[in-house]
Automatic annotation (TrEMBL), chain A:
Keywords: Membrane, Transmembrane, Transmembrane helix. Residues 1-20 are annotated as: Disordered. Residues 1-13 have a biased composition (Basic and acidic residues). It comes from Pelagerythrobacter aerophilus. It comes from the Bacteria. This is TIGR02588 family protein. The lineage of its organism: Bacteria, Pseudomonadati, Pseudomonadota, Alphaproteobacteria, Sphingomonadales.
UniProtKB/TrEMBL annotation, chain B:
It comes from Pelagerythrobacter aerophilus. NCBIfam families: TIGR02587 family membrane protein (TIGR02587). This is TIGR02587 family membrane protein. Keywords: Membrane, Transmembrane, Transmembrane helix. The chain crosses the membrane at residues 21-44, 50-68, 80-105, 117-135, 156-175, 190-212, 224-248, 260-282. The keyword 4Fe-4S does not apply.
């Protein structure tokens, strides 16, 4: 019964609602506006401060060496100092023993996004801490 | 007491609409949220093109709010509020889902995180805004309003707009995948022509078979040829343009020659045409 009365007014209420949206609508729209501006702002800022065609610059650093059953794991941190993304980044670690012989291990990382870090690992049989170990990023492809 | 009840009621109703919007955002967002090409695009997509696409998306949201937002709208102001809320829902739903998947991690740069969310927010906000019509049960009052909405939907301009929205949504879902280019390579020119004809045929079947929302009869003077030209061919034109625009946004046309552009666009125009065709049913 009460329902019928309510629906009789629904037309007017509809008009009224259009001039005064519920509080929750203002709150959600406000949150939406903040998020919209935040996303647009961050992307625009990144676009303006962006690479301007500068190529990716990926550095490889040893972050940790862990002995495991089959040898040693050398964990590598790749840091891209440019804002351009590097894809298919190949890294190589070269272990140089005191007698001049070397052991080489490589790994490939799918993506190192701009201004970001990614981690990878290389396996060696000898303890890299007792020999000289050089790691470097060999190359990349454009995404 | 009575005034309190009156002010609590619309808020509660709106809260239910918001919950539906989150549901819609997840449903429409999931195929992209669980596609790795979409995550990668988040960090390497050209920023100017991404921002432009977000603005286009927002305009589409405002337009869609005209006849299917999660609140009935009577003014442009409300459409704007509706679109903002839907975009907010899209961002929150995308960010939450990506975070749970472990795609967003603390060590990542702000650009990477925002980019990943921004790409996903497009289909998610689309789902949020059309959720009401898809999931809402309608009261009698809403059915009355539906009549007005249906009349609005009947206008030719809106029909074209709906086709743009539908084409954009499906094109956005498919354009990032490597398969678009691969299919282009696999097809001979004859396959390409067959695909174009198939696209037009499907589009026309929907235009002709589904009829026109809010109208008992097709628009006056609309014989077979009239419908074919003003809806089907116009719709396929929209599908082609939308495909071209989405491919450009994703950088798929960079360095491609004219024949390659034509073949990829033709491939993507197929789902775009289907999207344009079914938009009137879904939205």
């Amino acid at each position: 019964m009460a329902r019928t009365g309510h629906e009789g007014r629904s037309e007017k209420q509809g008009r009224k609602r259009s001039s005064q949206p519920p509080l929750l609508e203002w709150i959600s729209a406000g949150v939406g506006l903040l998020l919209t501006l935040a996303v647009l702002g961050a992307l625009t800022w990144e676009g303006l401060a962006g690479s301007n065609g500068a190529p990716p610059a990926v550095e490889a650093m040893i972050s940790r060496i862990t002995p495991v059953r089959a040898g040693y794991v050398v964990e590598i941190e790749l840091r891209n100092r440019s804002s351009a993304t590097a894809a298919a980044v190949e890294i190589e670690g070269e272990l140089i023993r005191s007698d001049g012989t070397t052991a080489t291990s490589t790994a490939t990382v799918d993506y190192v996004p701009g201004e970001s870090t990614r981690n990878a690992g290389l396996f060696f049989e000898d303890d890299p801490r007792r020999h000289r170990l050089e790691v470097r990023a060999l190359g990349f492809a454009e995404p | 007491m009575a005034s309190r009840a009156a002010s609590a009621h619309p808020n509660k109703k709106y809260a239910i609409g918001l919950a539906r919007a989150f549901g819609g955002a997840i449903i429409f967002g999931l195929p992209n949220l669980m596609t790795m090409e979409m995550w990668f695009l988040g960090f390497y997509l050209d920023r100017t093109r991404l921002v432009l696409f977000l603005l286009v998306n927002f305009a589409i949201l405002v337009g869609l709010s005209r006849f299917s937002g999660f609140e009935e709208t009577a003014s442009v102001k409300e459409d704007l509020l509706d679109a903002l809320a839907a975009y907010g829902v899209g961002v929150i739903a995308s960010a939450a889902t990506l975070a749970v998947f472990g795609i967003l991690l603390p060590g990542m740069s702000l650009g990477e995180i925002v980019g990943k969310i921004a790409v996903q927010s497009v289909p998610a906000s689309f789902g949020a805004i059309i959720a009401r019509r898809q999931m809402g049960d309608k009261t009698d009052g809403e059915k009355d309003d539906e009549h007005d909405v249906a009349e609005r939907r009947g206008a030719y301009g809106w029909q074209l707009f709906l086709m743009v929205a539908g084409a954009l949504f499906l094109a956005f879902n498919l354009a990032p995948t490597e398969e678009m280019i691969l299919i282009g390579f696999k097809m001979s020119p004859w396959h390409g022509i067959a695909l174009v004809l198939l696209s037009v045929l499907i589009l026309h079947a929907f235009v002709y078979g589904v009829g026109f929302a809010g109208q008992e009869q097709p628009p006056e003077g609309s014989g077979f040829w009239r419908l074919l030209i003003s809806y089907t061919i116009a719709g396929y034109g929209i599908a082609l343009l939308v495909s071209l625009y989405v491919l450009w946004t994703f950088g798929r046309l960079d360095g491609a020659d004219l024949t390659q552009i034509a073949s990829i666009t033709g491939v993507l125009a197929f789902p775009s045409a289907v999207g344009a065709a079914i938009a009137r049913l879904v939205v």
